[in-house]
User: Fold these one by one.
Assistant:
Number 1:
Amino acid sequence: MRTQRIHLLHLLLSLFLFAAAFSPVAAAAYDASAPAPDDGDTEFIRSSCNTTLYPDVCFTSLSRYANAVQQNPGQLARVAISVSLSKAHRAASYISNLTHDADYGTSGSRAALALHDCFSNLGDAVDEIRGSLKQMRQIGAAGEGAGSFLFQMSNVQTWMSAALTDEETCTDGFQDVAECPVKADVCNRVTNVKKFTSNALALVNSYASKGMP
């Protein structure tokens, strides 16, 4: 069952990578015909990012989407979730490749087991972030009131918090592993992913606190 789950996660992550290449957010980042962002839109992102734990990472990753975000906190949260999803997926894909690399430990070693557990945790995080993004896209639909908004935002907050926990579980799994290339490599990469997830969650919380779509 464990082997089947690993293979299934490999397949799902490969499919997601193909889909992500054609996502609206990815396309917006490279639209050479798009007008220069408005200074007010950029400053909105900067001030919003100042409420996160990693404001520099936040602003650097999100300011390129100023045209799409404008000064809409809901859109900013959606873009932040999308970026965190991309980062988590890339890390999971990278770790998936490592699980087949003999240079990173023999099968059954503590490092190899931690690596496989980390991949499983990141797969869960990817699913949770994807669920958050899907829920965010449904917010504000016609006929939905404040009660529905708060319920939907509660779901988004729960899933993003769970994703962050899964990412932390990945790095925690290496605590008892002796220092080795795979430990440093994976922990550094996943620690970076956690910054994007943490920032996205902070922006989600900020949007939810406004109480309206």
Note: The chain is about 75% helix and 0% strand.
Number 2:
Amino acid sequence: MCPIWQHSLALSQGSIYRLIVDASPFAKVILIVLLGFSVISWAVIIEKIRFFRAADRYSDLLLRRFREGARLEELAAISKQTPSSPYSSLLNGAESEIRLQKGGNLVASKGSAFSATEDVVRVRSALNRTASTEVSKMESYLTFLATTGSVTPFVGLLGTVWGVMSAFLSMGLRGSATLAVVAPGIAEALIATVAGLAAAIPAVVAYNYFLGKVRGAENDLTKFISEFCDRLSGGLL
């Protein structure tokens, strides 16, 4: 990097630091609030990335064995080894419901079709309830990201308005409108705006991304339930 640019960057960073240190108590409260929103939202983003990566990895294994024609007993065994997958919860719920209806046995152990319509309906209901729980789990804390994306720009704007108001009050008290009088208050105001946007933009992007992942997973779970019940009623599990 050019030495001139390095010098300018160092001056800019030092000036920003001084503005934050010398900011009014109200402006500091605004910045602390925005920092809290930003830290928590990034923690949610990182946790959701880890959650969806683990879910995708284990779901691929279960779906591959399901599509290869694995029996219910094998799928139930795999699901116990892949607890991070929503499909594991579905299969565990289906296993519990079938064992309840069959006196502790799985359909696969009898090798017969699960042909009673009312039995399949009960299994489908159990799967739908489990799917709703899994979708709710995937949606957890997304509301906080949405709140961060919608609220923090206005919190930053509040700090901006306060800084501009302070600048004009300083002008009135000093009876002068020079740049030296106005600039510190305006700069303080702009820092609050930047902080608000810095907290809001990642939260909005992450919220939209994760919401798309949840909606896609919800559709996939619905398709899986339909396919599972079709195979169950046809004696293929």
Note: The CA atoms of residues 145 and 207 lie 6 Å apart.
